[in-house]
């Protein structure tokens, strides 16, 4: 009995001595539950912040362990999103230059409007293609399924309504006809729906992109927690200005007050300038963000290729 007792008592010690001692994590890993940085924590332990198992953050969902084929798809989606903002800024500059040419060189404003209306399809197509490609493929560590679905549906609605507005604008400019009251109302409603859809789609997309970066060395939702709110503001302001413009036009038409219309026009011009500045800042920051994301994914691919 004593010999058996001795063997049973010493057996666990022998097993423990044969176990491999785990080293603390030597890289940045964000907890998928509370976004705490788990660097320096043992991989078989729990998160010091929320108590969740660290194994949850080391699973296959993390982009760090995603297959190269998926990373290539994600990089291409981010490329088209990046391209959409570059094209938007380029067309903004070209539109300004076209306005100067129309005023100083006698170039027909109708021709410039037609060219710009058709050209705006390019950034729209790039953004829609990139957004759908980013949110429809299988995501690793996609802890925001509602944002994924909202971004997808919002992008489709935004694309359809924006394209309708562009086609209607081209037809009106080409035919040199003033829109009737019915056409103006339909166009205004479509523009409002398009604006709201773009806000929902882009905000959800940015939130989703930030969310599925959990586990990556660079996480915008950690270093830039104000990013989704900033994007939301830059998209809401132009829509609010558009709604105010429709309201002011309705008040002016109902009252027949030309002076009121001129005063409101000045106010709308100032607000429009502010909206343009916000869009410029949003576009520049988005370009910087997507460039940084693509570089981060390239770094992950290079690390994977070393093993």
Note down, in words, how this protein is organized:
- Keywords: Membrane, Transmembrane, Transmembrane helix.
- The protein has helices spanning 2-18, 68-104, 109-119, 121-136, 145-175, 181-211, 220-223, 227-255, 258-305.
- It is mostly helical.
- It has two domains: 14-58, no CATH class; 77-297.
- The longest helix has 48 residues, at 258-305.
What is the fold's blueprint, element by element?
Blueprint: H1 2-18, H2 68-104, H3 109-119, H4 121-136, H5 145-175, H6 181-211, H7 220-223, H8 227-255, H9 258-305
Helix pairs in contact: 2-3, 2-4, 2-9, 3-5, 4-5, 5-6, 6-8, 8-9
Q: Total strand count, please? A: 0
Shape: elongated
Multimerization state: single chain
Class by SSE composition: mainly alpha
Low-pLDDT windows of residues: 1-17
Average per-residue pLDDT, rounded, comes to 73
What is the N-to-C order of secondary-structure elements (H for helix, E for strand)?
Answer: HHHHHHHHH
Number of helices: 9
**First-residue to last-residue Cα separation:** 52 Å
Biggest β-sheet: count, sense, barrel? none
How much of the polypeptide forms β-strand, as a percent range? under 5%
Tell me the radius of gyration.
Answer: 27 Å
What is the domain total for the residues? 2
- Give the helix level as a range of percent: over 70%
């Amino acid at each position: 009995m004593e010999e058996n007792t001795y063997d049973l008592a010493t057996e666990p010690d022998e097993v423990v001595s044969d176990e491999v001692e785990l080293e603390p994590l030597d890289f940045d890993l964000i907890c998928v539950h509370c976004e705490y940085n788990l660097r320096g924590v043992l991989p078989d332990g729990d998160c010091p912040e929320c108590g969740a198992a660290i194994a949850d953050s080391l699973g296959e969902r993390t982009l760090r362990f995603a297959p190269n084929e998926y990373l290539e798809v994600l990089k291409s989606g981010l490329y088209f999103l990046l391209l959409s903002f570059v094209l938007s800024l380029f067309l903004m500059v070209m539109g300004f230059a076209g306005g100067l040419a129309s005023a100083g060189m006698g170039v027909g404003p109708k021709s410039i409007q037609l060219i710009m209306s058709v050209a705006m399809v390019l950034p729209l197509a790039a953004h829609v293609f990139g957004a759908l490609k980013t949110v429809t493929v299988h995501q690793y560590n996609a802890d925001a399924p509602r944002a994924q679905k909202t971004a997808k549906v919002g992008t489709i609605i935004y694309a359809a309504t924006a394209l309708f507005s562009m086609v209607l604008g081209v037809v009106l400019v080409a035919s040199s006809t003033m829109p009737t009251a019915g056409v103006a109302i339909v166009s205004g409603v479509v523009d409002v729906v398009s604006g709201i859809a773009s806000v929902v789609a882009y905000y959800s997309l940015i939130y989703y992109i930030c969310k599925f970066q959990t586990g990556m060395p660079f996480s915008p939702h950690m270093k830039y927690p104000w990013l989704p709110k900033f994007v939301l503001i830059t998209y809401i302001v132009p829509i609010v200005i558009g709604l105010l413009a429709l309201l002011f036009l309705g008040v002016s038409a109902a009252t027949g007050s030309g002076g009121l219309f001129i005063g409101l026009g000045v106010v709308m011009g100032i607000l429009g300038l502010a909206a343009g500045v916000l869009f410029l800042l949003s576009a520049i920051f988005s370009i910087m963000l997507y460039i940084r994301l693509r570089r981060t994914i390239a770094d992950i691919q290079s690390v994977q290729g070393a093993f």
